[in-house]
């Protein structure tokens, strides 16, 4: 393998735009690309623009009638069929919606193909991670589920074991649904508890069905969970399951909306903890998946202070050129931020919480602690199904 990393980027993905006032502001993608470039990371990765996902690829996950509904809404947004989740408050229809959604999906599929074929070790598509889209409906700002499509393409190419780890603040419901009965895919989602956040799914008792029983894993974290608890929960569940599953490819989703500044959720995680989990995912890929790693973006609605820094760290880690937390943010990028948003950009690549301290599960747990209760519920629900000790 070459050891290079690949960054999927086509400026046209910023056309994924639900309109003024919608939380999914495409400026977050433009600013991330700008910060990646300001640090020169675009010169140490292969920057590739893949083709949009074609209909045969989209049908690996999505129903044909849904694809046709998206196309119709794309051509005439005013006639969007809300029975497919289109033209709603969360997913307003807009002209060109099918084309740009297929383009984002194509970047994730292209990333998966490049990693599977050994062209690169790692591939990043920070415009991707649209994990709520269902086979027959849009949901939660997501039209086509590029994460599920990337996994489905890996299976089509011959992969027998793919692990998906989702650390977005929202449950990765669409990816879980796509592979609910498929033993070739292990889906793990760490998210805010469904009692307090959309999509109200992702309970620890959701474990898959049929041949896929034990293949869906959900860690439902209490609102207010901060750095130490979030990183503890990750390490208490993810590494042991990945080690047991031995995936041929690791696909990860890095929604930045776990951050304490995010306006749509209630966790209290810092940029530094997000970076720590990105590093952990990279290490898991090398330890258990032969280095094959596809890393995606996801949610994240603090579009200036959080998203660009978080995903720039992700690109740096994948590229083998980690950006140290104490690094000063380039002034040229801060000027770009002000020109685009009239906001002041952050000054450093840290929230001042590096290194992140956390206690390993192996040293013991507190049965009265809400975070430990959440971890224990997941372990008890899933681990025995996989022949592991809870």
TrEMBL record:
Residue stretches making up the Histone deacetylase domain: 22-315
Task: Give the pathway annotation.
Answer: Ketone degradation; acetoin degradation
Q: Which GO terms describe its biological process?
A: acetoin catabolic process; epigenetic regulation of gene expression
A Pfam family the protein falls into: Hist_deacetyl
Which keywords belong to this entry? Acetoin catabolism
User: Where, if anywhere, are coiled coils annotated?
Assistant: none
Q: Which Gene3D superfamilies match?
A: Histone deacetylase domain
Gene Ontology terms for molecular function: histone deacetylase activity
Q: Which family does it belong to?
A: Belongs to the histone deacetylase family.
Q: What is this protein's record name?
A: Acetoin utilization protein AcuC
The organism is: Streptomyces sp. R39
């Amino acid at each position: 393998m070459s050891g290079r990393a690949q960054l999927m980027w086509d400026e046209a993905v910023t056309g994924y735009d639900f309109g003024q006032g919608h939380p999914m502001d495409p400026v977050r993608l433009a600013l991330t690309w700008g910060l990646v470039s300001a640090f020169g990371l675009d010169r140490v990765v292969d920057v590739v623009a893949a083709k949009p996902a074609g209909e045969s690829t989209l049908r690996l996950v999505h129903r044909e009638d849904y694809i046709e509904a998206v196309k119709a809404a794309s051509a005439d947004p005013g006639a969007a069929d809300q029975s497919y989740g289109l033209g709603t408050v969360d997913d307003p229809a807009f002209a060109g919606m099918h084309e740009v959604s297929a383009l984002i999906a194509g970047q994730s599929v292209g990333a998966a193909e490049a990693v599977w074929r050994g062209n690169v070790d790692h591939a990043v598509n920070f415009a991707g991670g649209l994990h709520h889209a269902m086979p027959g409906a849009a949901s939660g700002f997501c039209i086509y589920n590029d994460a599920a499509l990337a996994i489905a393409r890996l299976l089509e190419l011959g992969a027998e074991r793919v692990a998906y780890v989702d650390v977005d603040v929202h449950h990765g419901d669409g990816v879980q649904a796509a592979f609910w009965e498929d033993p070739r895919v292990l889906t793990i989602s760490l998210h805010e508890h469904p009692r307090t956040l959309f999509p109200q799914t992702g309970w620890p008792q959701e474990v898959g069905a049929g041949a896929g029983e034990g293949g869906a894993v959900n860690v439902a974290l209490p609102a207010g969970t901060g750095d130490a608890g979030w990183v503890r929960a990750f390490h208490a569940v993810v590494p042991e399951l990945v080690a047991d599953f031995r995936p041929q490819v690791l696909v990860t989703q890095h929604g930045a909306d776990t951050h304490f500044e995010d306006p749509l959720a209630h966790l209290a995680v810092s940029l530094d903890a997000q970076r720590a989990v990105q590093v952990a995912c990279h290490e898991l890929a090398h330890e258990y998946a032969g280095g094959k790693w596809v890393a995606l973006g996801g949610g994240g609605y603090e579009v200036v202070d959080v998203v660009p820094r978080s995903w720039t760290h992700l690109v740096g880690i994948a590229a083998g050129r980690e950006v140290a937390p104490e690094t000063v943010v380039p002034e040229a990028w801060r000027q770009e931020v002000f020109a685009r948003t009239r906001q002041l950009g952050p000054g450093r690549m840290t929230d001042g919480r590096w290194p992140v301290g956390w206690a390993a599960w192996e040293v013991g747990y507190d049965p009265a602690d809400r975070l430990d209760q959440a971890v224990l519920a997941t372990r008890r629900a899933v681990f025995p199904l996989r022949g592991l000790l809870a």
